[in-house]
Fold each of these.
Amino acid sequence: MSANGNLVEVENLTKRFAVKQGVFARGKTEVHAVEGINLTVRRGETLGIVGESGCGKSTTARLMLRLLDLTAGTVRFDGTDISTMSQRALRPLRREMQMIFQDPYSSLNPRKTVGQIVGAPFAIHGQKGAKTRVQELLETVGLSPEHYNRYPHEFSGGQRQRIGVARALALSPKLIVCDEPVSALDVSIQAQILNLLRNLQRDFNLTYVFISHDLSVIRQIADRIAVMYLGKIVELGDSESIYEHPKHPYTAALLSAVPRATSGGRERIVLSGDVPSPVDPPAACVFHPRCPRFHEGQCDVETPQLRELATGQSAACHYPLEKWPMTDDEIRQAEGAERVDRPHLEGTAHEL
């Protein structure tokens, strides 16, 4: 057991996927999915990971669970280095780390009954008394024990996700990775599943890594938030600090895109251009081609390190934000002064 209160510790986590360059091209190139991430998940907390599609959120979570092999770096789970463990050696630890998947329709085998699906972990690990335990789990997640012999197609989306939650709980894990578990559900059902996850965390002392593209969902459930961009963490801090006082320009742009009941003087920050290709990411700061606070000669030359800028809040930026929200004049001034001699491509902010 880790003595510092961390359940998961990640150092220099890196994952690159080899891909062919084209139909007629020879040789292979690499997709930089995750690059040099350092991260901890504290016991009993919910760590939210947010970012645009393709930024490496899900890959990072799968590396934590060793569902993917690492290209480089170290992953320690509950004090044990699992970075290079064989699948056989990892098997006992699989009981303590589980995953809830995004799509409640495709993550359940349509040919198996609910009892078989939720009972599969017991069968794999050779545990007896599965039927009674499965029926208890169904009750725990808000379903009826009578659903034991039914098939997934007989349930709604929210009920199917509850089945997925029951399966993840089967072996009393310490860590559950929630990979966008409510994104495919109606808003009212989302709230029910989030409340269920909170209650389960309290009752079973669970630790969550919660991945989402929805900032409002992350704000409701996460204790700390890691903001990712192009395979790197650009900001990390507790939930309230990130939402009220973002330090990285990318985080501010994401927050400005969140719908609000009243404007409150907050101006929409429109990022120029598109997300660069992870096959050939920008040198130095990966965000500098789109950043309104770009300074030539530093942002495109020197890689910013994740450093603490406020108590419990870190950002990887040479010129972090000093105040938030920025006014319309401040945004125009920043874009005009900082983007001299740079091509300005009109585009829309990429909303999470």
Amino acid sequence: MKADIITIGDEILIGHTIDSNSAFIAFELNSLGINVYRIYSIADRKIDIIITLDEAIQESDIIIITGGLGPTNDDITKKTLMEYFGGTPVLDEFSMEYINKLLKARGIEATECNIRQAEVPDTCTVLRNRNGSAPGMLFKKNDKTIISLPGVPYEMKGIMYDEVIPYLTNNFSLPVIIHKTILTAELPESGIADILNIWEKKLDNNTRLAYLPSPGIVKLRISISGNNKDQLKLKLNNHISYLSKIIGPKYIFGYDDDSLESVIGELLRNKKKTVSTVESCTGGNIAHRITGIPGSSDYFIGSVVAYSNSIKKDIVGVPRELISNYGAVSKYVVEAMSVGIREKFSTDFGIATSGIAGPGGGTKDKPVGTTWLSVSHHKGVYSQVYQLGDHRGRNIEKATIYALNMLRNAILEFE
């Protein structure tokens, strides 16, 4: 079963609005076993809508359109679809009743513009919108299903859940597709590909692996399709078990919707341990990530952004001779920072970062991207140097991810 998605709106093409609708629809369709082959973004122009529809109907079984159903003159989707599929406008009583209810609550009478919102072609099946004024529409042509939905995300999602998904489930024989995402930190995409090379070559046609990289993290999404859900789950679990073994717990920090900070929070809470941070090159980003988790006050005590050497010495307690002899970006200083912050805040773990984020400040011995990270607890101190590159934003994000993963591994090993 093949599907195309068409988003209509000049605001998307000029970059004012991010097309989150397509991502949502594609995810929901894929979960049903419907493969999305193309996603179009087109202007609010009649000719563009017609040309795109012609192409999509030729190629796919299901076409879902979002946008252009509003009451203003630039919202031409409904009028164009009425011309394309034929028919005359009729008033959808459910939509009109809902509109009147909304307007009455505001003490407003329905206008001609409001009434037009409730009109639909008599050639469509109406998809009720319980969150807004524009109903969805379902058309059939050459055994193809064409669905038009509002562009407002919460209205579109409501119709998808209430109307579209039940319709597709009841009217099509769909395969089962299940997914699992393995979350890894520190390993580059190419390094993981080398590790998985032999395993990946042996995959059958119903099993797919997708690499989803971002700074410091690579997500591995495994998708398996078939007809027997229980058998697919067993097959998927076997793959996950094998990959977890060959990649290793040092780099795998979670699955699906986990984040490093949520995993760390759960570990600290379960072990009844606390953490503090002292950040130079990351500028408080680690503390920001940790405190983004609800309830983090259970285990996060505090942070110091020690950008200047005087703060490292006077507040964190780094001996001035270490900075003089080795420089702020060094193993000795970053280790002293992680120990110093742990002792100052009386926490079980301390994290420290010191590096040259860029784009300036590098030297021959310490080029831009040189970053030292450290984690300490009462049994020892861990540190690692990284050469991250010359992009300041990516360097900060990578250093944050690597430091959090270093903390996660230290907590796992801690007894």
Amino acid sequence: MQAELTEDSTLQVLMARQPIFTKNRDIVAYELLFRDDKGEFVAGLNENETTVSVLLNTYASVVGEKRERTVPVYLKVTDQFLLEHDIPELPRDRFVIEVIGTSHINELLVAAVKNLASQGYRIALADYDPQDSRFDPLLSIVHIVKLDVQKLGFDNLPQIVQSLRYKGVDLLADKVETDAEFRICLELGFELFMGFFLSRPELVRGRKVRGNKLVLLELLEAFDDPSADAKSIEALALKDPELTFKILRVVNSAAFSLKREVSSLSHAIALLGMDQVKRWVMLFLCSNEGDTPLELTRAMLQRGRMEEVLAELLERPDPMNYFFVGLLSQLDALLGIPMPELIEQLPLDTKIKLALTDYAGDEGQLLRDVIYVERGEFERVNADLPPQFLQVAYRHAVDWANQVVKAMA
């Protein structure tokens, strides 16, 4: 971690990515969010801030159940940047140039966008407003139109979608906040979707944790029992032999980089200690359920790891508690159980429960900061850390989560 911090110490741009989904909730692209160290929009990219290799290797990577793949990255650019700078030489099939809605749209800008399209770039138009005629010249050039469904209103969307259908563009629904909103946009004919609907599904009151998740809960309780030892925990885990095998496979994977193979759960505890094995039990509590998209599990892992790394950088005691808080913060979405009901079923310390429900305490406050980074709301982060530390923690968490998902799949 220290080596990585040293390597990226000159990075002055905060970056995060937000997935763009298909109708099947598969990731088809990422939008890159980036700000400078004062929280201002960065007009473009230069060699000192980011490189194409970093973007493609870290921010364009998607880990699926069978393979890892790369997807295009959406890059927001201002009108000033389009008119005053040349777009860096980028692979045409790997980047989508996104023109922001606050641009001053004139003949020069339209010509610049047309030139990029003629070079083979795909162009997206953000913040489209059908009442604003200044967007009209771009509709015959761009390939994707991004609609803020919250701002435009769901009552107005059918007419807007119908009018844009004649332009031959793909429609991207932005700010889709719930599963119900996703289904509305799906029925209206949107091809692409952005927002936090994966973490806000329909929650069912009274639902209980079931299946191998119950075994995992029993294991977590056993880890907190002072009288428990490696053998007693292993005996409990063997109630679900398949689950035990999966935990051992992850522990033996590159995610842990062990020099010798771990042959049993008790062996893993002897080598790594109770806390580290407890971490992996917790990971399987967060593995995807049924038709839940794998992206939700990956997002949970990423959030937990980033919060833990930030806690370490801030020299907070018990950084693993921060890992648990970040990891569990979307467990309600995974299991379809409201958080207040869910935490009553989890063997958690009161401090961790309050962090999850009220963002209380150091763990809860840092969880809020991690969420701000994920959403690109960098100016709202309260943690007393320089931007490059936040950026390195985020990149590390993205890579780590991908690695773990590959081992778990």
